[in-house]
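Need the bound structure for alpha-D-glucopyranuronic acid, inputs here:
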Amino acid sequence: MNKKKLSLISMLLLIILQIPAKEIPLVSSIYQRSYISLNGKWNYVIDPLENGYYDYRLQPFKTAGFFENKKAQDPSDLVEYNLDTSPLMNVPSDWNSQDEQLFFYEGTVWFKKDFPIEKKTGTRYVLYFGAVNYDAKVYVNGKKVGEHIGGYTPFNFDITEVIHDGDNFVVVKVDNKRHKDNVPTVNMDWWNYGGITREVMIAVLPETYIEDYSFQLKDGNTDQLTGWIKLNYPIAGQTVSVEIPELKVKQQLRTDENGKAWFGCKAKPVLWTPEHPKLYEFRLSKENEKITDEIGFRTICTEGKKILLNGKHVFLRGISIHEEAPFRSGRAWSREDAVTLLTWAKELGCNYVRLAHYPHHETMVREAEKMGLMVWSEIPVYWTISWENPATYKNAENQLHDMIYRDKNRCAIVIWSIANETPHSEARDRFLSNLSAYACNMDNTRLISMAMETTRNPETKTIHMEDSMNEYVDIISFNQYMGWYWGNMTEWANANWNIPYDKPVIVSEFGGGALQGLHGDSNRKFTEEYQEELYKYNLQMFDRISGLSGLSPWVLVDFRSPRRQLPGIQDFFNRKGLISDSGNKKKAFYIMKSYYEEKVKDKR
Ligand code: GCU
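Answer from helper R.:
Posting the output first, comments after.
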């Protein structure tokens, strides 16, 4: 098809699809695109009564809202806000750590950023947010371009029709109020950091661009690759090329009527492993676009009580990690934050990290992949979710979709987790079994799990791990806090286990608190010695589990939580970290480290 005809079709499609601005499917691998960064200083206005959104009868403004970014033109004009002269805040960031007035604040804050654009014809401009916690309403040049619910997954809007050459501005209404029907719900053990918490950029793309792609081993065969590339328009006959130089693969593909081109080839890539995290450069291109990405290949499956990575039994030497910025606290978001946290995990002897309790920043996953760490990635279906509310289910499913969509090419992710410590009920099982089916349907190349809970029989010193959700997961994972929330360590160290499923077992959380630097008897809670003892006895207890395939102790680093009020000890920090919030290792760190060293020796 000649270029002239093609651009005519694109223009025709544009007219048909001509909608001022709208949420569009995520432009995948945003960091591999050409983009304008909007990171930096944004003006912000604290608006606890949402006075910039509702009139005094609580009706949303059609005009006159703060999103208009209005200025008084005449001394007689009444404009009771000014986004230009309001204070400035770093974006990305959480407002809690940027302005002490906002430390505990839950509500609405408005953000505004001016940005110049030299608008080019035949170009699409897509405004991308890495994450906004929790409810985002986005306006460009005073026009609503869309909104997004969910604090930990990316979203983007095509703003081509609402920007103009020269100066433009974007306004975002961010509301992090908790609601019973949200995901997560109103109670959680982490700080409800509000704000534009991950990066903001404007992707600058050709009229017809590569929207998404996927490449992986074909049905787990290590000598065949399969994949596809999808354009943003359903245009047939477009040529897209895939090159994997190191595998001497180069193919020209043609899109079908859906704008999708299918890829397949025989190739024997070196498989990705934690010890040798091999990634291949992928060069995707079409007439006016080039994307380079790094993709690895591995197989992951279970066989009875074993987890097999590339066909070999693997023990997941893990640690749980919250997205808490090392040293400065607040929401982590940068590559430096990721590398610091993951380097600490490597020092611990990990080959695996549980990224709790929500999808972490894309960079965190990419850095884990480069450093040879397998990943458990989780949506925040946490504790007492509104199981009967269809909107809550849809919200959870959207977050699950967006997590899988964003990271489907990240071979380091081996487990999708659909829940954490949820109370048993039929409604909960319906909700979660649907999520499990949804995840399998979207991606049947990874394992599904969730953090369950145990019950105990003190007479027989037996720990029961029984959950009706067992048939909907590939791995039986559970959190338990022997020696902290229940049980005498010495009595339970030789506990009996009843886990009546022929599936691998991961202890997805265990641990206890310690204030780093507080020393004393090992029977005194919050001393480093108590935490050290607790780890010793728990590890002894875990070695009695048949089919134990992994551990992810709770937690790598102390993290902020509104549930931890003990003055002088917690001060709104959960102190179960093996490392303090100022980066100092506690004695229990070394217990865990030597346990993992033994695990590595056992394998040899
Ligand atoms: C639970 C929960 C964590 C929480 C931890 C704790 O297991 O999953 O989110 O922080 O216990 O009580 O410290």
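Comments: The mean pLDDT is 95. The longest strand covers residues 221-231.
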